[in-house]
Structure formats: structure tokens, C-alpha cells
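WARN no homologs supplied; continuing
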Amino acid sequence: MFKIGFVFLLGTLISGCQPAESPKIVNEHVESRAVKKPAVDLTEMCQNIEKDMANINDQRTTFALEEINQNLKVCLPLLDHAQQHKLMQLSTKMYQRFLTVERDHEQQIAFEHYALEMAQHPTIQQSHFQTLNSRDQYLLKHKGQAYVELIDFGEQQLNYRRSPDYLARIFAPYLPKSERVFIEMLAQQNHEPILQNGRLLISPQEMMTRALFWQEYLHLYPNSYFKTDAQFLMQQYRYYLFFGTAKSPVSETYLDRLAMPVDVLDAIEQLAKMPTSTLSAQARQYLQFLEMTPEQKAAIQTNHEQSSLEQKLVSYTNSYAPKHPQNKNCFRDAVCI
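OK structure emitted
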């Protein structure tokens, strides 16, 4: 009896030590088959992308935008240059529709009040939030997603916008070098506003640097798709350096060097010492004007019967305030729109 029990126990132990059949391998095989999905039809997706973009409006979510942006990254390398530019233009219209908010007068006041207070006091009471238009509530909750930003340009120009990084990250990698360089640089320059309440927010040194960049860009890429925009940017930054804005002019008199701010004069002198170019020549003329006698300045002809010294300086240096040929704004996005 003892022997029988011992043999039975030994058999049980031996059988317990035998390697079990391996269902794990079978399970993994079954599992791998289960997670396989049919390949995405890229042709169909890319053919439908224009329609999908057109369906984005002020009722859609940031998730819908992000889905389209992911599809764009897939489709753009497969398209020709003309198709890429068409989608870039459509993307601008898509964001404009998405960021449109229809407010009544009270809602507009509530939006400006809330957004400005948020900038100063991020812990603003939730009760103020409930007074906003429902679309404002949604966009404010989701800013930072899908390249949606809220930015203060001053003078009650508090607006949502598409981040300049959008075109630099989604489109620029697939465009020709001249266009990629333009978009990436303008995105960098327009991260923050350059003007607020009509006053410049960047230093004279930075204005000079930007004007020089666009001059060099035109030299390197004379046939760029963005040639007109680059010319405008070079001229506008030169004008800001030389004359400022109506609300923050460089000088009240332009009488001589003593009438000039030190930082502006330093930047213009630095520019004048650079190798001969359009900008350096104009900087030298600017300094020459400051050294002129009253009689020499009086002899300078302008388009005005009664000319101020500023108007004479503009004429002498041929540094007129530029106007974009298509009335585009070049200071809010990574392209002029």
C-alpha cells in the first residue's frame, strides 16, 4: 500500500515537472493576427483631403484639425509643387473659418475683459469664464492645441491665430529650399508681435538684423516664390529703423545726430559701415543728411510743398514707407496673408 502511494506520488511529481505545451506562442500568433489592420489607402485619403479641409468650420474641434494636419504630413511629400501651394492656401482659409467667433456686443466686451485679465491674472475666477460666447470658451480651453494661439496686438486687437510654427512644421519640410528658408525665418520673427498699440517692441539692432536678412535672402534667391514679400519685409524693417512709427517716431526733428536716440544711431552707423548694398548706401545717406547745413537740407526736393525734415530725409534716402502690392500682412504668420 505504501509502495503504491509512493509510486503514485512520484508519478505526479514527475508529470508536474514536464514542460507544458506552449499555448503562449499560439496566443501571441493569434493576437498578432488580431491587431493587424488593413493598410490605409493613401490615394483615397489624399484625394479627399481638400474636401476634409473644406468641412472645417467654427463648429469643429481641435481634434478634427489635428487629424487633417497628420494627413497633410503624409500627403504633402506625394504632391507636386502647385498642389502643395494650393493646400497651403486652403489651410489658411481652414484656420480662418475655425477661429471665427460670432459675438454680440456684450460677448465682445466679455471676451476682451476676460482675455486681458487672464494675461495679468491667470487664476481669474471661473465665474467670469461663463459670461463668454460658447465658442470662445472652447477655444480658450484648447488654445495651445492644433497650433491655436491667442495673441494681443494692442489697440483692442486681441485675436486667435494659427501659430506661425504651423507652416514651418507642416509644410516647409516638403517645399523648395528658398521657400523653406522664408517660412522658417518668418515664423521665427513672428512668434511675438513687433507692434503693440502702434509702438515697436523690437530693438533697433534687431530691426537692422532683420532688414539685412531679407536683403541677403533676395540676393541668394532672386527668383523665390516669396520675392515680393521679402522685398516688402526688407523695406519695412529699414523704415522702422530709420523712422519708427507714427506713434513712436525715431526723432521729433531729425535735425542732427543729437536729435537721434543712441541705440538707433548706433545701428544705422553699423549698417553704414557694411559692404556696399542698398541698405548700407541708404544708411550712409541717412548719416550724411544729419550732417547737412540747414541750407543744404532746404534744397532737397520732395513731393510736398511744405516739407518737414523727416519728409526731406525720406526723399534723400529714398526710404519711403512701403506698401505691400497685395495689401498682405507679413507680421502675423509664417507667410504674408
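The chain has a mean pLDDT of 87.
OK
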